[in-house]
Design a protein that fits this description.
Blueprint: E1 4-15, E2 18-29, E3 33-37, H1 44-52, E4 61-66, E5 69-71, H2 76-81, E6 84-87, H3 99-103, E7 110-111, E8 114-115, H4 117-130, H5 147-159, E9 165-169, H6 177-194, E10 197-201, H7 205-211, E11 214-219, E12 222-228, H8 236-244, E13 262-272, E14 280-290, E15 294-298, H9 305-312, E16 319-327, E17 330-331, H10 337-342, E18 345-348, H11 352-356, H12 363-368, E19 376-377, E20 380-381, H13 383-396, H14 413-425, E21 431-435, H15 443-458, E22 462-466, H16 470-476, E23 479-484, E24 487-493, H17 499-509
Parallel strand pairs: 3-10, 3-11, 6-9, 9-10, 15-22, 15-23, 18-21, 21-22
Antiparallel strand pairs: 1-2, 1-4, 4-5, 7-8, 11-12, 13-14, 13-16, 16-17, 19-20, 23-24
Helix pairs in contact: 4-5
């Protein structure tokens, strides 16, 4: 039986008007992989922010014992000095610095007060080898490597600080199945060979049940249940029941599709890389969307799904774009985002925090920003109309907030995503391009998003649904396109699709096959 490396006792954290943590107790065994789960807003990230010193001692009640000693961290630096590293969902890397520079950022290898670049390079290579980052050079800029590789840079960075307890917040949220598997295998390997203790926050329950020794469920800021590997209780359905406080029998709402005629077509669509105009990113893609239809777009990371979506939506991505867009039987030219919106096309970004929301603005401002002309009277925004519109969408989408004047940054991930959907709907679209609409949100919030998408399809809207999660693609789609290397390699009705068929079509279409 292992001893505990960490004990958090009766942790209570209060924000103005909200008790985020209520006497939470949390213990992590030495050398364990411990999963921490709960709905958005349950208090998981808040608890880890307390542990890592982001919320310093004195801003919360309770005690923290690490390696048997009470700790009163006043900053992140204090916790890092004892070997605690926190990798957030939004990676803390500098895109225009090299991999080596990022690994030792804030932890520079110096000699006589000057950075020793030879030592930096040598130690970076060793750390990259340890985490399996072998296909890129240490001098590559972070912006030029894949998201899965960026996750490995973060882990190498943590190991470079002699990390003993690694906290990962949604480490696989932005990864495809293959990259997710590789990352999880790495964590298991580091755990077995080097005794690294891990705390993992994730909504991908099937991953957690595979690799974790223990699992703790939080709900409404309270500790609900802790389970150990081997317990019969550790099933996805049982974990969900503890998370949401009720039995969630179905992951996807039932729907009887009412599919109409083709309303949106893309023909011979070709897009070149904006940084390398000789490289084709989207290669002669053809697809169509019907009224009332949810069309899933599946593929591995780098397949070109987001590039396709952004190039269609006002040419937000790409150079030398060629091809046709036909809407309701007539060709439309979408040279800008304004053109796309004016022609009834809306796009929900895969990154709500970077490209979907103004976090420091309130719910009202975020919802109405996409179509202010709808609220303008004699050249001025009618504030009464704006408030009325925002309240209507808050109620329609069940956005859980004190009011429409609450800042977007203070909402849970699921409610932030609903604000993004509301922002799209406020443009009165007929075609909705949804890029990873449930990324990083819990099962309860996902179900609500699926319900909203189904309602939009029932209203006759065309839905282009991009997701890296194969069960989600299969569960929500009426028809599926599979992309690989910038091309559509397979089209299939959802009723005939399976995870195996999708992966087979990708593998068989790969270059060199």
């Amino acid at each position: 039986m292992s001893t505990n490396i960490l004990e958090m006792r009766n942790i209570t954290k209060v924000f103005p008007g909200v008790k985020a943590l209520d006497n939470v107790c949390f213990e992590v065994g030495q050398g364990h992989i411990h999963a921490l789960v709960g709905e958005n807003g349950a208090g998981k990230s808040t608890l880890m922010n307390v542990l890592s010193g982001i919320y310093p001692h004195g801003s919360y009640e309770g005690e923290i014992f690490y390696e048997g000693k009470e700790c009163k961290f006043k900053s992140i630096k204090d916790s890092e000095e004892l070997g605690i590293a926190f990798i957030h969902q939004e990676l803390a890397l500098s895109p225009y610095m090299t991999i080596a520079e990022n690994i030792f950022l804030g932890n520079e290898r110096q000699k006589n007060g000057v950075i020793d670049w030879d030592v930096t390079a040598e130690e970076a290579r060793k750390l990259m080898q340890r985490v399996g980052l072998t296909k890129v050079h240490h001098d590559y800029l972070v912006k030029d490597i894949m998201v899965g590789q960026q996750q490995l840079v973060e882990i190498a960075k943590a190991l470079g600080k002699n990390c003993k307890l690694l906290i990962l917040d949604e480490p696989t949220a932005a990864l495809n199945d293959e990259d997710s598997k590789n990352l999880l295998n790495l964590l298991v390997e580091l755990n077995k060979t080097q005794g690294l203790t891990c705390i993992i926050i994730s909504h991908k329950l099937h991953e957690l049940t595979e690799i974790s020794n223990r699992l703790t469920v939080l709900r409404d800021g309270k500790t609900i249940q802790t389970m150990n590997r081997g317990d019969e209780a550790i099933t996805e359905d049982n974990i969900i029941r503890h998370m949401v406080g009720r039995q969630l029998t179905k992951r996807f709402p039932q729907r009887t599709p009412k599919i109409g005629d083709i309303a949106f077509e893309v023909k011979n669509w070709r897009v070149y890389d904006p940084l390398d105009e000789t490289r084709v990113v989207i290669n002669d893609v053809d697809f169509n969307l019907r009224k009332g239809e949810i069309v899933g777009f599946s593929g591995l990371m780098g397949a070109g799904r987001t590039e396709l979506a952004m190039s269609i939506f006002g040419r937000m991505y790409g150079k030398n774009i060629q091809g046709q867009i036909i809407k309701d039987g007539e060709e439309v030219i979408l040279h800008s985002v304004g053109d796309a919106i004016n022609n009834g096309v809306a796009y929900l970004s895969e990154d709500r925090k970077e490209a979907g929301l103004i976090l420091i603005d309130d719910i009202k401002g975020n919802i109405t920003l996409s179509n202010l002309k709808k609220l303008t009277r004699r050249g001025m925004i009618d504030s009464d109309l704006e408030i009325q519109a925002a309240n209507e969408y808050k109620e329609k989408l069940n956005i859980k907030a004190a009011s429409i004047f609450q800042k977007a940054e203070n909402l849970s991930g699921g409610n932030q995503q609903k604000v993004c959907v509301a922002k799209c709907l406020f443009t009165d679209p007929e075609v909705l391009i949804l890029d990873e609409p449930t990324r990083g949100i819990d099962v309860g919030a996902k179900y609500e998003i699926y319900t909203i998408i189904n309602q939009l399809a029932d209203e006759g809207k065309c839905i282009m649904f991009i997701s890296s999660e194969l069960p989600e693609i299969l569960g929500i789609s009426d028809r599926i396109y599979v992309m690989n290397e910038g091309r559509i390699v397979k089209e299939m009705p959802a009723g005939e699709a399976s995870q195996e068929k999708i992966m087979t079509s990708i593998i068989q279409s790969s270059s060199g096959r």
